[in-house]
Input
Amino acid sequence: MTLLPGSTIGMLGGGQLGRMFTVAARTLGYRVIVLEPDPHSPAAQFADEHIIAAYDDTAALTLFGNACDVVTTEFENIPAKTLEFLTQFCPVRPAASAVEMAQDRIVEKEFVRSCGLLPVPFAAIRRIPDLAAAQELVTFPAILKTARLGYDGKGQSTVHDLAEAEAAFVRMGEVECVLEQRVDLACEISVILARSVSGEVRCFPVAENEHRNGILHQTIVPARVAPALAQSAQAAATRIANKLDFVGVMAVEFFITRSGELLVNEMAPRTHNSGHYTLDACITSQFEQQVRMVCELPFGDTHLLSSVVMVNLLGDVWGDSQPLWLALLQSAHTKLHLYGKREARVGRKMGHYCTLADNADAALAEAGRIFQQL
Ligand code: ADP
Ligand code: MG
Output
């Protein structure tokens, strides 16, 4: 059933993705209730209501579920049980099963394979002897990653031989891990897509992503890759969304190797940092598209209106004082987005900006010049 403006959307998670979703939803006239344990939530600043509670607090979830017409999420680590519990009150989009798939790297990579796609060569590591056995599948240098709860390069360690791998595994507390081939990357791209309740899919333009220290630094659109490769990535992401019976907006990150191979890195059952460019450079943003999908509205148009570069603003840029915002605001075709976080910490995503230009090279040059001055 279509939920029209005036209906209430529940958002699980209160970070910047929830914030930009909330702005989009309220712009369209929806009410938004955020459930998030942190009282200083970027999303709650824009929401109609903020329920400050843990994701497994059944009394709070009952209150939340009863007040909402539909529930969605901005955070892949919402417990599947929470999403399942909420289905007794209203539709939950995406479903627990689709969110759960992205919570464990081992499950995720096996799922990618079951879709007929290529994950990065990997081995599941549960005990120390698994590392020696893994050498049949993975050669050094490799990256040891915790199977669960990693983000922005956290929970990862590059290892050059078996001894280093064993030491890293012990350091990580011998939790379940994957040992992954370190790939010689030509570039990284991502596909953000929306899938409706009736199973239709629309992809946003493919984004080219540059990471620094495992954290996204900038996104360039249109991606500077062969059109055939961009189309294969969109087809692969679509296959994944269909197989998950996904409803909402999701992202798939890809590696392109020096030999031109397309590998699936990971997926996110939510809007994505590399899709922030859609806020300023597309007819419909990824956040409005999420509102449309969870409320069973028609798709918004996903066309790119301008070449664009999105640059993340990490806490590193703050140092002891505010960044020199005027250097950015003097650029008349640059848009600043700050997330309302109280404290700037190294590696913490505080905001981003999008610089629009006639072509990707011009946008890159301008965005880079601004970044130098901040
Ligand atoms: P996260 O969940 O932290 O985003 P990712 O697995 O996407 O974890 O890793 C973050 C970044 O680290 C990637 O976007 C890429 O730049 C780099 N990276 C991760 N795994 C590999 C790999 N196997 N080979 C080369 N680079 C990698
Ligand atoms: Mg990633």
